Amino acid sequence: MLAERRHQLILRALRSGGPAAVTDLSEQLGVSPATIRRDLVKLEEDGLLTRVHGGAVVEEGDQPFAEVAEMRVAEKDAIAAHAAAMVADGQSVLLDIGTTAFRLARQLHGRRLTVITSNLVVYEELADDEGIELVLLGGMVRREYRSLVGFLTEDNLRQLHADWLFLGTSGVRPGGQVMDTTVVEVPVKRAMIKASDKIVLLADAAKFPGTGMAKVCGPQDLDVVVTNAPVDPATRSSLEEAGVEVVVAGKVQA
Fold first, then answer.
1. d(Cα 19, Cα 10) in Å, to the nearest integer?
2. Mean pLDDT throughout 76-101?
3. DSSP per residue over 91-148, as a string?
4. pTM metric for this prediction
């Protein structure tokens, strides 16, 4: 594999909250740990990542939506299916930005629901479903990530109420803190939390700990975490001590 292609794949894995350790990247790309270390040195010199003990991190939030949408699809679908089953017909659902929320929207077709979102891909998915009352929040468009942000989005949310919020994340720290890589999204996520009765975090295994420099909320703000794999003991303990139900969705077929 050419070095340039390896560099692209390394950055894609790190930006998506995937493996950050040298050993994990080596196994994923099928090259030696020494090769990965040289790649990380070069990428750090180019200002594209930061090396940490045993691996590297990328604190970016603007990876194109279409690129992220291709990653871990089966895992996201397992989480989405479980989340959709939590909602009763006639209820209102607030869907966050992100690709897992999009996979959840695909599970809602044919239901009698109100769906509120700042996620343009969710809007496009459900726009022709006449059984769903669809509310698109206003705001400034983040074209690369197909979302709406800013004070207009937050003002809209102050006028609304939802039975359920399905929240996305870039990472969950061992203390249960929910993080995001993009500061501009954080006020919108916080406004969504305030507008909702039940807060469900959708987080595949790569989000523990994942990435993120900005805190969205603490574990006390969550009701349920739906994931696709067992959560590490420290994080699970922090969540359960805060009264959060941790649900592992059905096993994904290889």
1. 9
2. 94
3. -EEEE-SSHHHHHHHHT-TT--EEEEESBHHHHHHHTT-TTEEEEE---EEETTTTEE
4. 0.73
